[in-house]
Amino acid sequence: MAAPDILKRLKDKAGPAIQRADLPDERRLFVFVEPSALKGLCQFIFRDLDARYIISIGADDRPHSGRFLVAHNFAFDKEHVLCSLLARLPADQPRVESISDVVPAANWAEREFRDLVGIEPVGHPYPKRLVLPDGWPEGVHPLRKDVRWDCVPPGYDEHREFTFDEPPPGCVVVPFGPFHPTLDEPEHFRLYVEGEVVRGCEYRGFMVHRGIEKLAESVLTYNDIPMAAERICGICGCVHNVTYAQAVEQAAAIRPPERAEYIRTIMLELERLHSHLLWVGLAGHIVGFDTLFMQAFRIREPIMWAAEKISGNRKTYSLCLIGGVRWDLTDELKAELHAVLDRLETEWRAVAAVVSRDRNVQKRTRGVGVASRELVKNAALIGPVARASGCDIDCRRDHPYAAYDRVDFNVVVEQDGDVWARLLVRVQEVFESIKIIRQCLQQMPDGPIQLALADELPADRLGLSSVEAPRGECHHFVLTGEQNRPRRWRVRAPTYQNLQGVPAMIKDQQLADMTISLGSIDPCFSCTDRLETIDLRSGVTRVYSQAELLKLVRTRQANQR
Amino acid sequence: MTLMSKLREALLGLRAGRVTLPYPLAARPVPARFRGRPIFDPVKCTGCGGCANNCPAREILLFDLCQEIRILHYLGRRCTYCGRCADVCPEKAITMSHEFENATNSIGDIQQRLELFMSTCQRCGRCFKEPTPLEQLKLKGYRDDDLQNELWVFRSQAYREKEPAVRDVEIELD
Amino acid sequence: MNLLATIALGLLNAATVLLAAPLGEGLLRKLTARIQSRQGPPLLQPYYDLLKLLCKEDLEAGQVPSMQRFAACLAFAAVVAVAWLVPMGAPAPLNAHADVVLLIYLLSLCSISTLLAGLAAGSTFSLLGISREMMAMVALEPLLAVALVVGAVHEKSLRLEAVLSGSVYGAAGFPWSGLLTLLAVLLAFQAFVQRAPFDMAEAETELMEGPLLEYSGPKLALFKYARQAKLMVYCALFVALFAPWGLGLGQPLAWLWFWAKVGVLVLLVTAIAATHARYRIDQALRYLGGLLGVALAALVLATFGY
Question: What SS3 state is found at A270?
Fold first, then answer.
């Protein structure tokens, strides 16, 4: 069932509510519907057609069409189609029915466009601020076109503190973050703990929100944005770089040269290698096993050196431009890469053999942070988290991009859904990545690595791209615009979805397991924080009042002065 | 058995030896394509402004002092070492050097200001730079010791900044 | 022993423990680093760390600063006091004035000082840390007490010189109770010295250092020093209780031989600490509870003369 078939089924269901449908190719579907029919169609797609929810997007299109735009993106993994349901909303009343009750995974995305664009999701079960801090005044929505990118609104109270929910009775509040030795990025998990058992948590993040999307829409140009996109994340930058380039190329119907596609594949897999090795080390460190941490990082180092030789930087490859890549692979570099991969494979096989039989590590990771298949579907979890719970999804195979349709690889799936299963998935994926890179090095054709683009890119085109980042599916939505920049660019990093599953994973587990459960989704808060945040909550009893806790913190600070 | 796997883990580590590098006590060489601090060559630069147009961080500024002098100012604060300026420069005047030890509390160490002497086109009057150094020598005002001719060069007051546009970083030590 | 000899020997013990403790820590760090394929800090680094901390400003952070200072001093003093009770290559200094019961109490005092430290700091993480410490104490102190009592039962005396000289093997025939006790204490040894896999009370990644969260400067120096000395003292105790052979060699050979054995034990602790992940408190308690059962079985055997 390809895109035309899906469209036919949608037409059968909704009929006249569908105003317009764009099928740029067999794998993309853009359907404009009436706002009133949006929720019904989303429910149909999510439940009846069993699609996977990706993201919801709000955009201010008033300068061009006089209306707001709302989009809900879904993926048909088995049919290899990415689909977007769009609706135009009147400028004076940007309201849309919330789909969070039928698609629980849309919780954060709707709160985000409520904060940033001002589109009200009517009927949202938890309409609390996500991205914007509590001190931000009402009515100023940063992603609207009439708000400048460097605006500081009058009435912004930067000292106002977050308003947290009431903790359930009987529980102690254990604050986790924003400063914590385990976490590299600031986020706040407010854990409600009974003894040593976690009964729930509230998440408050987006503390390092940098407004990259706004910058891209106001100040940067098409070829500047890849450099900004790769700085979204401190580990998986190449993914954002490539996904954005691919989204724009799809929107403008540009096909990069074949050699460029192979180089993109190689760099993406190199990134997956170093990210997974980093994660295994980090997981070891979290459970107190520093030796695994050191060894994983030692084995990982040659990959960073190889990346530096190819691209000039260990992690920020600055790889893509629209229509190609910037760095080429010479024969010496290919030979060096082969040597690095051979050495890596030998050493990693030894580590994998030893760790898989290590009962000490298994004791800390088996049965911990379990994500059921139902949670994976409802919260739209992706990546190794989903694959460890038995869901066979992988964008490299389901929505092929770059050169992935020309290489062979297996998708590693485990069944248990706990941290141990995720560890096994990531360990095995290292070997698959090595296989892919070797095939690419062998099959890479000669030729140019960058298209010479003579014309300006056409405006008002939609582009979607899904790339399998080490953490899951990274999805970009682009609406091309004038003046050499996109009109709307939405980044959905994988951790954005996976974080929404964390409270369910840590509920009724030991406090000591909280960090490893959180770590097992391989959280990348920098990726998440370009947009809004969401919090989750559960019922726990309270021993200290929030005022008492604040008083504790303040008296300590006062004493220190 | 756990004991065997632990023993093998320990052996793995011991067999690998010590991988600690002696940096910073010994220099660390970088690969050829390493993107360090960009160095601007005033001799080759023609003042086209390609680098300024393509810098994603908007850290290269171009300022026309007068008809004949164009200032290219690399501010270096937000520079991300992406190398786009070096890529687009038609004269290959920008090199991504191998310098990565750039920490300083005086921003002037990183900033580069190029004063480009431009000729005027006889037909349209716009500035361009003489293609060879010999031709450049013939330009009015190029020779520093030609004080007589210096008088003919108009210097805008804006150039004599009383306060620098970017201040040095002051670090307070208690 | 006359008073002068007692004091001299006690001071020698205490001084050796205090001087050797940072070196033991340095050895631990160096060996851990080698297992982790890296260079590691210099062997004398812990001395520099302690000096640095002692020279810092004594900040007051936490709920009850006076109690915090007291807890730091208590931790240090308790460990040094135990050094006076353990024979380290020579008879225990306070032989004539103390017995095994006092030893058990002083060892408990070391753990109690950590509890006091966490309570006095009063932050959420310290309280969580001391709750773990308390749970671990409940399982550990009885284990050590039972091991010492096994020796006491064989020797029919609670005197230090009697018990702390391999008394557990004192059975008439094959020393079953001795071997069982040795097994139990050996397998629990990492928990006694609070290293991986039983360092959950001070888990950095989970609890932000637990009870020691609000400590810095000289107070932290005292706690660190106490922890390092604790390792030495426990190793010395273990050697005295389970491996005291060679004491008849004559001084100073016997003294050197004793400390060589302690060194080997420190290396063993390091090797295990470097290759294990941290256990959760409930897993640790189950494990230690099992070992307590083994020790009690040894006690029963001992009372029957086995």
Answer: helix
